[in-house]
C-alpha cells in the first residue's frame, strides 16, 4: 500500500515512531516546519527500448568482436540470466560472408551491447517496475553516444569496463555470487532437522549435520565424524551468527536454524537483488554522507569517504517499511514537538484517554482547535516527547526523517525493525556533532545548552549533507565474508521476480 505520509514516533515508552508536522496554531512554541506537500517518488525519464543509431557508424574490428564475446558472454557474473545478453548467434551472423546475414548480426550485436550497457549501469528493472517505496531511482542513461565513440576511437574494452558500479561493495558481491553459485553447483546444503536447541555439549546426528552445513560456507570448519558439539563448533556457529546479524551466542536457536536453513538458491537471489540495487546509485557518492542500511538497522557517517561514526538504528517494521531514498539533510530540530496525525490520534491515543482519563495530560498532549470546529493533538517537547531531543530533516515524499527516542531498550536487540518508517538513532548527539563539525556557531556546548533549555530551535546546517536510506540484505565485510539478512520486507524476492518476468 502506498504511504505518502508515514507515521513514526515513540509515545512514552510504548508508542511507535510516528510522523511529525508541527504548526504554530495556538502553541506557545515556535513552528519548526511547514506542512509537507504530498508528492510522488522521483520521476526519471524512461529508458528507451530501442535507441536509433546509424549502424554505418559502428564497424567492429576483430579485437572488438572478441571483446564483446567475452564481456557479453560473462554478463551472468553480474547477476544476469545466462541467456540475457548471449552474443554467440549475433557474432556468428556478423562473421558470415553473406551481406544480409552480416548486417543482421551487426544490428543484433549493437542492440545487445546497448541493452547490456543500460542494464549493468542503471539496472535491469525499468522504472515502471519500481515499487513506490523504492524511491532510490537510477538516473536516465543513454549509452549510444559513448558506445559509438568507443568503437570509433578503438577503446571499446575500456568503455565496457567503466559500465558496472565503481564500488567495492558491488565488486565484492560479484565475487560472492561466483562463490555461492559454486556452492550450488556442488549441491548446496541440506536443511537441518527441527528439534531442541543445540549448544556446546550436544551430540547426535543433528550435530554432524550442523557441522556439514557450516562447512558449506565456512572452509575453516573441519568435518569430524565424532558427533560432538565442541568449542570449535561453537566458534563456527558464532561466526555464522555474525554473518546473519544474529546474537553470536554459539547456540543454534530458532533464528539461527532459520538462517542456516535458507537455501543456497535464495542466498544467490539475495546477492543478485543487492547487485541490482547497487546499480541504482549514482556513479559517484558524496564524500560526506550518512548511510542507513535499513535491513540491518545500522547508520554510518562518512567524512571525506572515511567512516567516522557507526551506530545502531531502529527502522520500519514489515508493513511500515522505511523507504529507499537519497536526499540532503538541511536542518536539525532541537527539542521537537510532535503533531499527531488524525488516524493515530483516533486509533491509538484517544482510546488510551478514554480507558484511563488524564492520559493526555500525563503524557504532555494538548488539544489544538482547527478550522471547522475540529481539533488535533500535539505532544509538547520535553522528557516524554516521542521524538526525543532531536530530529534531522530532509526533503522526501514519504515524510520520514532521523530522530532521537526516549525508548532505548530496542537498541540492545539484534532485531531492530520496529518503527513506522522513520529511523531512530542510538547516538543522536554524536550525529549532531558530526554534521555540525564545521559550524562555529553550533558547538557541542551550544547544542547542549539549547537542549537543556527545552526551547524548540531549528538549526540549519552550514552545508547540507547527503543521506541515503539503502536496503542491503547481502554485503561483504572487510574480511571477505558475505553477510546476509533475512529480507524483512520481501523486496529481494519481489525484485528478482520482477526482473525474471521481463
From TrEMBL:
Keywords: Cell shape, Cell wall biogenesis/degradation, Peptidoglycan synthesis, Signal, Transferase. GO terms for molecular function: carboxypeptidase activity; transferase activity. Pathway: Cell wall biogenesis; peptidoglycan biosynthesis. Residues 1-25 form the signal peptide. Pfam families: PG_binding_1, Scaffold, YkuD. It comes from Caulobacter vibrioides (Caulobacter crescentus). Belongs to the YkuD family. The keyword Cell wall biogenesis/degradation applies. CDD domains: YkuD_like. This is Murein L,D-transpeptidase. The active site is at 403 (proton donor/acceptor), 422 (nucleophile). Residues 288-448 form the L,D-TPase catalytic domain. GO terms for biological process: cell wall organization; peptidoglycan biosynthetic process; regulation of cell shape.
Amino acid at each position: 500500500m502506498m504511504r505518502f505520509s508515514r507515521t513514526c514516533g515513540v509515545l512514552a515508552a510504548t508508542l511507535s515512531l510516528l510522523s511529525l508536522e508541527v504548526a504554530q496554531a495556538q502553541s506557545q512554541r515556535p513552528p519548526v516546519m511547514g506542512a509537507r506537500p504530498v508528492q510522488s517518488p522521483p520521476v526519471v525519464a524512461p529508458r528507451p527500448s530501442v535507441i536509433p543509431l546509424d549502424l554505418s557508424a559502428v564497424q567492429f574490428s576483430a579485437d572488438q568482436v572478441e571483446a564483446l564475446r567475452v564481456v557479453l558472454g560473462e554478463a551472468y557474473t553480474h547477476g544476469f540470466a545466462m541467456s540475457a545478453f548471449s552474443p554467440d548467434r549475433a557474432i556468428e551472423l556478423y562473421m558470415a560472408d553473406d551481406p544480409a546475414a552480416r548486417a543482421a548480426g551487426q544490428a543484433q550485436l549493437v542492440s545487445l551491447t546497448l541493452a547490456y550497457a543500460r542494464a549493468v549501469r542503471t539496472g535491469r528493472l525499468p522504472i515502471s517496475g519500481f515499487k513506490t517505496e523504492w524511491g532510490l531511482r537510477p538516473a536516465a542513461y543513454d549509452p549510444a553516444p559513448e558506445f559509438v565513440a568507443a568503437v570509433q576511437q578503438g577503446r571499446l574494452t575500456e568503455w565496457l569496463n567503466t559500465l558496472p558500479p565503481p564500488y567495492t561493495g558491488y565488486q565484492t558481491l560479484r565475487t560472492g555470487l561466483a562463490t555461492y553459485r559454486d556452492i550450488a553447483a556442488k549441491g548446496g546444503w541440506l536443511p537441518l532437522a527441527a528439534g531442541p536447541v543445540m549448544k556446546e555439549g550436544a551430540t547426535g546426528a543433528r550435530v554432524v549435520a550442523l557441522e556439514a552445513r557450516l562447512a558449506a560456507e565456512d572452509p575453516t570448519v573441519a568435518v569430524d565424524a565424532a558427533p560432538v558439539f565442541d568449542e570449535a563448533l561453537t566458534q563456527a556457529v558464532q561466526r555464522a551468527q555474525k554473518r546473519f546479524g544474529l546474537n553470536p551466542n554459539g547456540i543454534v536457536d530458532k533464528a539461527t536454524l532459520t538462517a542456516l536453513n535458507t537455501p543456497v538458491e535464495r542466498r544467490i537471489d539475495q546477492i543478485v537483488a543487492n547487485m541490482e540495487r547497487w546499480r541504482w546509485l549514482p556513479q559517484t557518492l558524496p564524500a560526506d554522507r550518512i548511510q542507513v542500511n535499513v535491513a540491518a538497522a545500522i547508520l554510518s557517517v562518512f567524512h571525506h569517504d572515511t567512516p567516522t561514526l557507526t551506530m545502531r538504528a531502529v527502522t520500519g517494521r514489515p508493513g511500515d517499511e522505511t523507504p529507499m531514498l537519497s536526499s540532503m539533510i538541511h536542518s536539525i530540530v532541537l527539542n521537537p514537538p510532535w503533531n499527531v496525525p488524525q488516524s493515530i490520534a483516533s486509533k491509538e491515543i484517544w482510546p488510551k484517554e478514554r480507558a484511563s482519563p488524564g492520559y493526555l495530560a500525563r503524557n504532555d498532549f494538548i488539544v489544538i482547535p482547527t478550522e471547522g470546529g475540529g481539533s488535533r493533538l500535539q505532544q509538547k517537547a520535553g522528557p516524554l516527547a516521542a521524538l526525543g531531543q532531536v530530529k534531522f530533516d530532509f526533503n522526501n515524499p514519504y515524510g520520514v526523517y532521523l530522530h532521537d527516542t526516549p525508548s532505548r531498550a530496542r537498541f540492545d536487540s539484534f532485531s531492530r525493525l520496529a518503527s513506522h518508517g522513520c529511523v531512530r538513532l542510538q547516538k543522536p548527539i554524536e550525529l549532531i556533532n558530526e554534521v555540525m563539525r564545521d559550524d562555529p556557531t553550533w558547538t557541542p556546548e551550544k547544542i547542549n545548552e539549547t537542549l537543556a533549555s527545552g526551547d524548540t530551535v531549528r538549526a540549519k546546517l552550514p552545508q547540507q549533507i547527503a543521506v541515503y536510506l539503502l536496503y542491503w540484505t547481502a554485503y561483504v565485510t572487510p574480511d571477505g565474508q558475505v553477510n546476509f539478512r533475512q529480507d524483512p520486507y520481501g523486496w529481494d524476492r519481489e525484485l528478482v521476480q520482477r526482473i525474471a518476468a521481463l
